[in-house]
Amino acid sequence: MKIKLALFLFIALLFVNCKDASKGVNSSQAVDAISDSTAWAQKELAQLSNSWVIDTLSYDDIVRVNDDPKKQGMSISVFMACPISSPKGTDLPAIQKTIAGIFDHENKPATPKEAFDNIAEKYRKDAQNYARDWEVEGNEFINFSNFEQSVGLSIASIFSQLITVSTGYSSYLGGAHGSFFVRYDNIETKSGKHIPEEVLFKKDYESKLAPMIRDEIARRNSLPNEEEHLSLLVELSEIQSSGNFYFDKTGIIFVYNQYEITPYVQGVVEISIPYSKIKPLINDTYLPLITSVEKDNA
């Protein structure tokens, strides 16, 4: 049976602490290097069926100009969910290490806690740089307190052989509007290995997958309901697979973020390709995984 999780990416005033994912012990002492304002309170978010247990790390702060409490401040928020218990037959340490690498892809963190600390520190330093730039460049028409940056990694779904995480990035750094970006990553539960697009599909899949995506976009744009229509920023013939995807009960969903193929106003676009069409392109190694996803949803 599939487990669908709503792990509430950014919940106001909720601060929860994850056990050190590699050791299963309280890790609150390790957070001092980031900020005393981080609130840690060990809590299991959910005791899921089949022994999946998810905990979270959360860090919220306001970084003020010159660290002066009387001056304007930019909001930053970092959130990360991680499994701390999983069923037999799954490789929990490998899953945790893969999630850590997804969240902090610039370094090679050994644990989710290390990845979280790295990102929290990076966001704080970035905010301090923005504060200095804001003060130097002039601020007559821009309120620094409107600036914000947030990142959150949540567990999007869990199947018997697959766990999917989504990482959402949100920011406002001046201008007409903010921005939002979401990235999905899929992980085998048995091995803990990441499954990128070029591994999931057979060699030379692009020439067959791209037309499937284009056909689905054309179908949507032909529907009577104009709310389904996509206002393309590129020629239909130029659209390729996004490399950003997740699995649901009917097929593989390819995700396109703001400005990738459509205007800002249309937000994140999802294009679904049914398993019945896409299975011939799947690498033989992963056909059992697709079958298990379909079975889990039955």
UniProtKB/TrEMBL annotation:
Gene3D superfamilies the record matches: Fervidobacterium nodosum Rt17-B1 like, Heat-shock cognate protein, ATPase
Key words of the record: Signal
Leader sequence segment: 1-20
Domain DUF3298 span(s) in chain numbering: 200-276
Keyword Signal: yes
Pfam family, one: DUF3298
InterPro entries: DUF3298, PdaC/RsiV-like_sf
Protein name: DUF3298 domain-containing protein
